Amino acid sequence: MGNFNPIPVLAGAALFLLAPPGLAQQDVLILDDNVQFDADLGFDDSIFGGVFEDDAEDTSSWLDNFTIRISQQFFGQVNNHSVDLAPGFSFHREAETESNRLGLNVRYQNPFAPGWLLQASGQAKAYWKEDYEYGANGDRIDTDLRINEFFIQRSFGQNSIKFGRQTVVWGETVGNSVLDVINTSEFRDLTIIDIEDARLNQWMVVWDYFGENSDFSTFVNLYPDFNPAPVRGSPFFFEPPFNLTDYDRGSELLFEVGTQWRKSFEGSDIAIMAAYLFENQLRYEDPVSRIGDAVSKKNDFLLLGFSANRAIGKLLLNFDLAFSHNVLADSFNFPGTGSFVAPVDLRKDQIGTSFGFEYAISNEQSVSIGIQAQSLLDEDEGLLLGQALINDGVFGSWLVRYSNTLMNSDLVLSSTLQGGVDGDSLLALLSVDYTLNDNWAVNAQLISITASSDSPLVFLSEDVRIGATITYSF
Fold first, then answer.
1. What are the boundaries of each domain within the chain?
2. Taking a C-beta distance cutoff of 8 angstroms, is the pair 352, 367 a contact?
3. Between residues 8 and 153, which one has the greater pLDDT?
C-alpha cells in the first residue's frame, strides 16, 4: 500500500502545454469494436451538420435518414478447463455457446429545419437456442427492445441545447478515463470489453455555449440510472446470496448536474469540470431478515476534474485528473457487476489520473495506450481491527489498442490488450473485419483471459472465446 502523490500528475499536465506545438491531429484512427449488438452505434460526433446555418438542407423524405443494420452473431467459450479458486477447490469451465442471436439496429438522423436536429437509435434482439438469454427465459426464445439515443437539438447563435437520451464524455484518454463516469455502463457480454462500447444513454438536458476563446458545457441528468446487475447466464453472472434488484426510488427525486469549461490553444486543449453525481455502481447489502432481495443503496459524491491533450505531429498526448469527494471506499471497480464480498461502509476521498497517447503510424495503422490509476486518500482511517479494503493502495487498469486497415479499407485487423495495473489480470482480443460489398460485412473475434486468484476475473481465467458476426446494412 502507498499514498498517491498528485504533484507529479499535475507536473505532467503542465508538460502538455509546454511541449513544442505541432500540427493538429489528423487521420488518427481509433480501434472500433462497435460491430456487436450491445455496442454503441458509433455515430459521428460532428452531428451539427449545418444546423447552425439558416439554409440547412431540407430532406425530401424522412425515410432517407434511416440506416438499418441486421446482424447474426455466434459466440462461445471453447476451452474446457478448471479454475483453482482455493487449495483443494476448483471450478470447472466447459466449452459452450454463449451467444446465438439476431439483432436489428436502426439509426435515424434528420436536420429537419434550420437549427434543428433529431437523432435516434434503437435495437431489437432475438435470442435463439443455446444463447444464455434463451436459457434464462426457461428455454424459450427471448426478445429485447431498447432505445439507445433519442434527442432533439436546437442550435442558435453560439448556443446549442440537446434534450433526450444521450451521453456526456469528459475524459481525453480513449476507453480508459477516470473522468468517464457520468453515463452508466453494462458489460453484459465479453464481445464488449471497454467502456466506449458499453456506455449507456440517459435522459439529459445539455447546453453548450461556443465562445470566441473558450466553450462552456452544462448538463442536467433528469433521471440518473445505475449500472444494471449482471444478466443471469451471462459470462459475468455469478449466483449471489440474495437477488440483486434495481434501486427503489419511491417518490425520491434524483438528479445529477455538471459543467465544463474548455479552451483551445495551438495544438492543444484544456478543460476544467465539476459535477454532483451518483456513483454508477450500487452498493448491495444483505437483507436484515436474511430473507428476500438484497438491499441496494446509492451514494452521491462531488467530482472535480481537469483534462488536457497535446498534438505533436501524428502523436496526440492525453491526460485526465479527477478528485472525487465522498465515494464509497469499497466500490467494486468493474462496471456492471456487484461486489462478491461484504464491502466496508466508509466514504472517502479519492484521486485518480489517466494518461496515454494515440499515434497514427500511417493512414492505415494506428496505436493507442491508456493507463488509469486511482488511490483512496487516508485509506486506513476509520477501519476497524481486522478490516481491510478491496481497493487498497493504487488500483486501476491499462489499455493498448492497435488497428491496421488494408485492401482499400475493406479489411481491418485490430487487437486489444487490457489488464490491471497490479498485473492480476489480462484480456487479449484479436478482431478481423471484412467488408464484402456496400451491404454485407463479417467480423471474427478471438478473446483470451488470464487472471490471478485475487482478481475479480478469476472465474474467467483461462477462458478462450471465439465468435463471428454477419451483418447486412442498408
1. 6-473
2. no
3. 153
